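Handoff note, outgoing to incoming analyst
You'll be picking up this chain. Sequence as last confirmed:
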Amino acid sequence: MAQPLLLVANPYAGGGRIAEVLPVITRVLRSRGVPYEVQEAAGFDALAEVAERGSRAGFPAVVAVGGDGTVNAVVNGVLRAGGRSAVGIVPAGTANEFVRGLPLPRSVQRATQALVHAQPADFDVAEANGRFFANVFGVGFDARVAVGANRLRDRRILRGRAVYFLASLLELVSGREALEVEVTTESERFTGRVLLVAVVNGRMYGERVPSLPTPSLRDGLLDLYIIQEMRRMRSFNAALKMIRRSPIPEIVIQRCREVTVQADREVETHVDGNPMVRTRTIRARVLPRALRILLPPESLPWKPAERVLDAVPW
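Most recent structure output, in case you need it:
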């Protein structure tokens, strides 16, 4: 890739790994003769603004250096600019869930090397209440955990995955009531009390669990999870499973192109781990093949092996 890259780096990603990561990235790019520019920014708004400005300025690729939240901000910035630039990813965050569903190296050095001859491929992206997301949108338990984790991170109490485990435990003991929701897709309708609703575009939801029923980033469909209310002890055990990302029986799964979630009160929401404003109504939809992501040329054309499972009837 002879044209310059814009590296958008989040200094707080991965518990502050960027100070160690950036020298590795720039050393690799210099050794390969790849021109680049580095801009650091913190927080969704600042990261998205840098990415949007770079895309409008004509950078053919904007590279997210960070975790899922950084990728989300860069995706939003690039798409706000009309999707003119491809999105590159150097995983330097805590979980890096989205990257684990792509044919991309996990190490910083190898991911940077892959950028040198990378080519753009078209992928689905999704949108919820005006915010784009590459991997997952959530309401309920995981959204509250995302909000709590961000607060803990801001207070610099813990770093890395420990932030999410502590936020999850705090949420478990909070005794919050389940949500009463109405969830509507283009073909189905669900009403009831739930622990969470998640709308998944990516192939990984949680640290080790492929999204269900058919994980894909290029099928023009979203995977909808609804985890229903349970008895107190059962709910506690299920929530522990959610931390470990284990299967839960009380789960409804459907596939859809768009979904509306109406809650009985204003609730926390998140996209790719980035908290959004509290709201009662959320509308999400898939945008087929609207995002270009840089992949190593040897992985193209890419079609992941898919595991087909029957959806659970409502």
